């Protein structure tokens, strides 16, 4: 039976590991290579790596750093940040990285999805939608670390990404990021009705127990986790952590009995 | 010496990292001599079936690989698209496969919200044959899958394990010294390294 994916999500800024709150105020966490190694030793299901300085400063991804990270990982790695071309994507896959996450380029040249599908396969092409909840309860998609508003209906965006052959969609809730206030289930329900490729939700997970509820309701899903897996306790002391195999079995128990 | 076939496609680095971790001597084969000196071969693959077959046929390595696989009987394992290439043909493209194993590649059937495509994540194997390749693994070992197409062998004797995703599909296949796995052992933590360790001992 296919299992849900519990995925540590790491942010890189100027080659350092950081953690943001609502996409702002990056706090230093540590070394991305060492942290990736620890998550590999914890047997994390996958790893998400986003370089937030690459996208913000229009820099190319740091291939040297990515190669070192990939080397540590006995699980699939998805990289996003500053990717603008097919060549960059292929170069990154050739480093030993399985998935390429695209964001702003999707709104500049959506054809890149088809071109990438040919080269690296649609299963490796991931669209990231950074979502903000508006005052009226509607949703907006933003790019460039939440700085640029995409003036387009999110439903239409989801439909187009799938028409062009995207392999997975990550819904990243800006309002939840770094808060540990819980995943916005209204937002997840809203988007999941328009998405038939695998979905990964992230932004605000409050506890391991919350994963159980999400899986019970949504079945196979990816859950991206930032703060909860790098911080511990009420004062947010840095401590890399991840549920053990037994803990995961417990979380998935109801799902596995279906 | 384990040799990874480099035909300009595929996630070779991840396999290299795993072989290094296991302390296994490896070679990345771009020339005929590399193939001739090898004790076993790994055939990786990413992208579309046609793209992979085109690159493989253009690599100039096909003849020498067929020579060592069929005359010297050295073990070869195809991973993901590399496994697909071992069969006759694929629904994903127009090119012919290698045809080393009697079977074809078909698309998994999606069921909008319960069976999402691609099939992505850890899923388990139901082992049919207690083979050397799967030796020492748990009863239903989990591996990481990432694909939308699957292999259907025509002969059940070629099926070592199946996996369920909407249907039971053939996730580990073999014919004599030729093996194929749908999942990614290089990205499946300890089960993956166990399987590659077993392959190295073949």
TrEMBL record, chain A:
Alphabetically ordered keywords of this record: Amino-acid biosynthesis, Histidine biosynthesis
Recorded superkingdom: Bacteria
Cited InterPro entries: Aldolase_TIM, His_biosynth, IGPS_HisA/HisF, RibuloseP-bd_barrel
Signal peptide per UniProt: none
Keyword set includes Methyltransferase: no
Keyword Cell membrane among UniProt keywords: no
Pathway: Amino-acid biosynthesis
Family assignment from sequence similarity: Belongs to the HisA/HisF family.
Protein name: AglZ/HisF2 family acetamidino modification protein
Protein species of origin: Pedobacter punctiformis
From TrEMBL, chain B:
Superkingdom: Bacteria
Pathway this chain belongs to: Amino-acid biosynthesis; L-histidine biosynthesis; L-histidine from 5-phospho-alpha-D-ribose 1-diphosphate: step 5/9
GO molecular function, one term: lyase activity
Catalytic activity, as annotated: L-glutamine + H2O = L-glutamate + NH4(+); 5-[(5-phospho-1-deoxy-D-ribulos-1-ylimino)methylamino]-1-(5-phospho-beta-D-ribosyl)imidazole-4-carboxamide + L-glutamine = D-erythro-1-(imidazol-4-yl)glycerol 3-phosphate + 5-amino-1-(5-phospho-beta-D-ribosyl)imidazole-4-carboxamide + L-glutamate + H(+)
Keywords: Amino-acid biosynthesis, Cytoplasm, Glutamine amidotransferase, Histidine biosynthesis, Hydrolase, Lyase
InterPro entries linked to this entry: Class_I_gatase-like, GATASE, Imidazole-glycPsynth_HisH
Broad class of where this protein is predominantly found: cytoplasm
Residue ranges of the TM segments: none
Catalytic residues in the record: 80 (nucleophile), 184, 186
Compartments, record wording: Cytoplasm
Protein name: Imidazole glycerol phosphate synthase subunit HisH
Natural source organism: Pedobacter punctiformis
Upper taxonomic lineage: Bacteria, Pseudomonadati, Bacteroidota, Sphingobacteriia, Sphingobacteriales
């Amino acid at each position: 039976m296919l299992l849900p994916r519990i995925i540590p999500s790491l942010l890189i800024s100027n080659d350092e590991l950081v953690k943001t709150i609502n996409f702002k105020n990056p706090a230093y966490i540590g070394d991305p290579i060492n942290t990736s190694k620890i998550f590999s030793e914890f047997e994390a299901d996958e790893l998400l790596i986003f370089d937030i300085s690459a996208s913000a400063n229009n820099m190319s991804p740091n291939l040297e750093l990515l190669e070192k990270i990939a080397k540590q990982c006995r699980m699939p790695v998805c990289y996003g940040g500053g990717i603008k071309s097919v060549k960059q994507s292929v170069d990154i896959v050739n480093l030993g990285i399985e998935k390429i996450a695209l964001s702003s380029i999707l709104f500049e040249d959506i054809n890149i999805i088809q071109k990438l599908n040919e080269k690296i396969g649609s299963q490796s092409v991931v669209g990231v939608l950074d979502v903000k909840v508006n005052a009226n309860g509607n949703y907006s998609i933003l790019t460039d670390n939440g700085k640029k508003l995409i003036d387009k209906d999110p439903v239409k965006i989801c439909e187009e990404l799938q028409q062009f052959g995207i392999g997975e969609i990550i819904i990243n809730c800006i309002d939840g990021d770094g808060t540990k206030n819980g995943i916005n289930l209204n937002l997840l329900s809203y988007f999941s009705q328009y998405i038939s490729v695998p979905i990964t939700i992230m932004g605000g997970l409050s506890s391991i127990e919350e994963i159980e509820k999400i899986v019970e309701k949504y079945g196979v899903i990816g859950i991206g986790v930032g703060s909860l897996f790098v911080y511990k306790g009420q004062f947010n002391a840095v401590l890399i952590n991840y549920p053990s195999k037994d803990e995961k079995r417990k979380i998935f128990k109801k799902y596995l009995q279906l | 010496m384990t040799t990874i076939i480099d035909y300009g496609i595929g996630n070779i680095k991840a396999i290299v990292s795993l072989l290094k971790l296991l302390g296994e001597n490896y070679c990345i084969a771009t020339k005929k001599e590399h193939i001739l000196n090898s004790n076993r071969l790994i055939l990786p693959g990413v992208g579309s079936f046609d793209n992979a077959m085109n690159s493989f046929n253009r690599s100039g390595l096909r003849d020498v690989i067929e020579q060592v696989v069929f005359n010297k009987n050295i073990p070869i394992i195809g991973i993901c698209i590399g496994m697909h290439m071992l069969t006759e043909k694929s629904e994903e493209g127009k090119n012919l496969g290698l045809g080393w194993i009697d079977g074809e590649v078909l698309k998994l059937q999606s069921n909008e919200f319960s069976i999402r495509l691609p099939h992505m994540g850890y899923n388990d194997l139901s082992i049919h044959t207690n083979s050397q390749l799967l030796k020492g693994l748990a009863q239903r070992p989990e591996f990481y899958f990432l694909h939308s197409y699957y292999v259907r062998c025509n002969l059940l004797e070629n099926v070592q394990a199946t996996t369920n995703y909407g249907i039971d599909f053939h996730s580990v296949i073999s014919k004599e010294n030729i093996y194929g796995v749908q999942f990614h052992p290089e990205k499946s933590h300890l089960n993956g390294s166990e399987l590659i360790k077993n392959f190295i001992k073949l």
